[in-house]
């Protein structure tokens, strides 16, 4: 981006402030004191300010990178067309998102007992972290995609192995992956009947709260610095009751994960606000962990399990593409407007490999952005983002930086300093050469 014209210091705050009235209340201001090399305030000095990252995590899954890493480690080269597509998708990912969710489904992460695919997941995590992105692991405990080799084992051995799995992976990836869905979809876990799995079997005995305790306590012991989520798709009162029981049992939850796969119809603003109020009452940070919006027909509403809808071809439609862009704009604006929301994760950049073959990506399978991608980029990197802006310090050598909370850089006299804009409103000092 090119820097905007030089502004007066009084105009910096206005130029950096969020222009969208729906989320303008999230704007924060930080005073910057600019000094020369001898510690004297620099008056009327040009200073360039730019935003580097939002405090809010704008996320997407990074599953493609795990596949790529696995292929590379196995010495399986890509075709030129595959390479070109993946590079295109990677560029689109980083041009919009800054928080990656990586797949740690036990059954695919460790398809053979004692042979976890640690190297591929580590390479993928490093790919994102090296580019400044944050990484979350999904999930440590879940009944679906559980290892089949676990099924014949007695319950006490299943629980031992489950504890060991949580300890191993939370510790192994500490420093790279410090946010986890500690346990996924507990509401349905003890009564799940779609397949035979050992995790559901032990959950019937241990109970929901017992399973949550296992996941959280083992993960926290392995990585005390981790942010641990309770994550679920069930937005009914059943999930609220589970949260109440877990908190009453003294289990520390760092954030609540709220899934919102909208294959059967878009929630709309009214339902989104209802979910925010019902789960916001617990006073915990809210992470919208799994968002999917359709750019084609919605699946039948009578289906209780989305996995029951299996089609070979599920195309986007012209009307669906425009509706997806409108839905994405409304949903993200509603979520960002609520200060309890800390992370918003879309569940798939591209239709390439999309769950259920659904047209739920923000990008077509060939790597061409949909209107929804452009709409979200216009919000996240446009209206809610401070592009490089140059202003002059006042008579005290100060200027105001205002914008959405996050990381910013301040450049003066060729010297670049990183600052944060957020709840800390104290004066931050930067020095020129």
Automatic annotation (TrEMBL):
Any one biological process term the GO annotation gives: xylan catabolic process
Keyword field contains Transcription regulation: no
InterPro entries membership: GH (IPR017853), GH10 (IPR044846), GH10_dom (IPR001000)
Residues covered by the GH10 domain: 79-379
Keywords, alphabetical: Carbohydrate metabolism, Glycosidase, Hydrolase, Polysaccharide degradation, Signal, Xylan degradation
Keyword Cell membrane applies: no
Catalysis performed (reactions): Endohydrolysis of (1->4)-beta-D-xylosidic linkages in xylans
Top-level taxon of the source organism: Bacteria
GO molecular-function term, one example from the UniProt record: endo-1,4-beta-xylanase activity
Catalytic EC class: hydrolase
EC number: 3.2.1.8
Membership in a protein family: Belongs to the glycosyl hydrolase 10 (cellulase F) family.
Name this protein carries in UniProt: Beta-xylanase
Organism in which the protein naturally occurs: Cellulomonas flavigena (strain ATCC 482 / DSM 20109 / BCRC 11376 / JCM 18109 / NBRC 3775 / NCIMB 8073 / NRS 134)
Higher taxonomy: Bacteria, Bacillati, Actinomycetota, Actinomycetes, Micrococcales
């Amino acid at each position: 981006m090119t820097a905007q014209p030089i502004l007066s210091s009084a105009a910096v705050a206005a130029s950096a402030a969020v222009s969208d009235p729906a989320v303008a209340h999230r704007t924060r201001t930080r005073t910057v004191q600019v000094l020369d090399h001898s510690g004297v305030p620099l008056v009327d000095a040009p200073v360039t300010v730019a935003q580097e990252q939002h405090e809010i995590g704008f996320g997407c899954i990074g599953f493609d990178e795990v596949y790529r890493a696995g292929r590379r480690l196995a010495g399986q080269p890509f075709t030129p067309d595959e390479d070109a597509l993946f590079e295109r998708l990677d560029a689109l990912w980083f041009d919009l998102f800054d928080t990656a969710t990586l797949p740690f489904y036990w059954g695919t992460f460790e398809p053979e007992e004692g042979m976890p695919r640690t190297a591929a997941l580590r390479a993928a995590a490093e790919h994102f972290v090296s580019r400044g992105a944050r990484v979350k692991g999904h999930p440590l405990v879940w009944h679906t995609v559980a290892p089949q080799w676990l099924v014949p084992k007695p319950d006490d051995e299943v629980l031992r192995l489950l504890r060991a799995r949580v300890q191993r992976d939370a510790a192994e990836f500490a420093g790279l992956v410090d946010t986890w869905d500690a346990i996924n979809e507990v509401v349905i876990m003890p009564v799940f009947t779609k397949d035979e799995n050992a995790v559901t079997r032990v959950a019937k005995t241990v109970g929901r709260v017992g399973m949550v305790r296992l996941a959280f306590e083992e993960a926290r012991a392995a990585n005390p610095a981790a942010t641990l989520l309770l994550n679920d798709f069930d937005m009914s009162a059943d999930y609220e009751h589970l949260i109440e029981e877990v908190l009453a049992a003294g289990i520390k939850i760092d954030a609540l994960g709220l899934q919102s796969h909208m294959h059967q119809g878009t929630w709309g603003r009214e339902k989104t606000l209802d979910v925010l109020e019902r789960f916001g009452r617990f006073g915990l940070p809210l992470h919208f962990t799994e968002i999917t919006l359709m750019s084609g027909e919605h699946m039948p509403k009578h289906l209780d399990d989305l996995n029951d809808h299996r089609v070979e071809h599920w195309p986007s439609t012209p009307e669906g593409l425009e509706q997806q862009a409108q839905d994405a704009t409304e949903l993200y604006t509603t979520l960002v407007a609520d200060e309890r929301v800390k992370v918003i994760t879309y569940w798939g950049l591209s239709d390439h490999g999309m769950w259920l073959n659904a047209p739920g990506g923000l990008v077509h399978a060939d790597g061409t952005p949909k209107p929804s991608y452009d709409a979200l980029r216009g919000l996240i990197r446009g209206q809610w983002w401070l592009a490089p802006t140059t202003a002059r310090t006042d008579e005290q050598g100060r200027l105001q930086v205002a914008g959405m909370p996050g990381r910013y850089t301040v450049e003066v006299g060729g010297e670049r300093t990183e600052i944060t804009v957020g709840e800390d409103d104290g004066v931050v000092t930067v020095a020129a050469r």
